[in-house]
Amino acid sequence: MEYDEPLFFRVMQYAARADRDVVDMVSGNPDWDAPPALRDGLHEYADAPTEAFQYPPSEGLRGLREEIAERRNVDAAQVVVTVGTAEANYLAMARALERDAGDEVILTDPVYPYYPGKTSMLGGRATFVPVDDRGRLDAADVREVASEDTACIVVNTPNNPTGAVYGPDTMRELADVAEEYDALLVADEVYDHFDYSGRFESALSVDSDHRVVTSGFSKSMAITGFRVGYAVFPHDLVEAAKTRHMLVNISASRPAQQAVLDALQGTPAEYYEETRDMLRERIDAFTDALDAAGAEYTTPDGAFYVMARFDGFPGTMENVQRLIDEAGVAGMPGEAFGESRSDWLRFALVTPRADEAAERLADYF
Fold first, then answer.
1. What are phi and psi of 249, to 5 degrees?
2. Which of 77, 129, 146, 357 has its CA 20 to 30 A from that of 283?
3. Which residues of the chain have pLDDT under 50?
4. What is the pLDDT of residue 7?
5. 234 — phi, psi (to 5°)?
6. In this predicted structure, what is the pLDDT of residue 9?
């Protein structure tokens, strides 16, 4: 199957070659520090015996799986620790498409581009359902396009790129659609710690054998390079997912898993609260500057992305390159996320220079 390389890499490479200073607002790489307990755990692990440097159990360290299971109120046997949330989504989508229940994958528009990429790679067929102006998904629109060919419904809440948070009613209705058509609902909740609305509720609150929840620690602990994620599968699907995981990756990194476990057990809630407060301030300052630039924009209810539309400046790759060269700000083209936001640009507010970038945009426009 043919599939396109995500545009993230092209934008980052172009920005790196620029002849001027550029504020990078392309990828969701957190700029705040990881939990102290995680660093302490790594230091301690360095002195571990040789056996601790060997393969861990393929499905993940038992202690980490049990910690996740307790926090998510599930059976530890349902948890597979993966190489980031990206692999968790891959395993869930693969499981959906290999069940002989159809080849259609329903996605939102706009959409995180790795989902349609995985769909193509796995031999699926993508169908896109537009969201409303605030990024909210109407489950009735999903039901309208669903059919016996639907194998999978993929949603991301809190959402990248719109910042929308899907409430519990929406998740219940989406699970109902999945059950009706013998599909799997895959709920990517990697931004679950970044809910500013108070409306987020995990899809695990929905009692269904037709939903898989994926998440990870890349964003919440500011450790995108550690590549530790997980998926929570229904009992009857977990063994096949574990086999695919073993054949593709054998396991996730043992030291990284142990460090995450140490951080989960040793990090107070204040760590996450302070991060949310900091991001709220960034979002407010950034959107204030967008007001000054006369832009239309989204105010995220979750995650840390802002989409903006500037009059007469559509979100093409060419215009992203112009912004890099002429304003010194690197964002993502809206066309990377689907047709419905092709006039928009997406900015990741995970840089201490977000205020500076906002001023540059306001001056430029």
1. -125, -5
2. 129
3. 1-2
4. 80
5. -60, 150
6. 86
Residue with tokens 């998740």: 171
* pLDDT one-digit tens code per residue, 10-20: 899 999 999 99
Domain boundaries, the chain: 7-34+269-364, 55-266
Tokens of 204: 């695990």
Say how far apart CA 248 and CA 300 lie, in whole Å: 35
pLDDT value, residue 4: 63
CATH topology of domain 7-34+269-364: Aspartate Aminotransferase, domain 1 (3.90.1150)
**Alpha carbons 299 and 313: distance in angstroms, whole number:** 20
Q: State the DSSP string of 214-279.
A: EEESTTTTT-TTT--EEEE--TTTHHHHHHHHHHHHS---HHHHHHHHHHHHH--HHHHHHHHHHH
Q: In the prediction, which pLDDT does 5 show?
A: 66
Tokens 């809630």 -> residue: 269
**The pLDDT of residue 85:** 98
Sign of the CA dihedral with 176 first, then 179, 185, and 187 last: positive
How far apart, in whole angstroms, are the C-alpha atoms of residue 37 and residue 30? 17
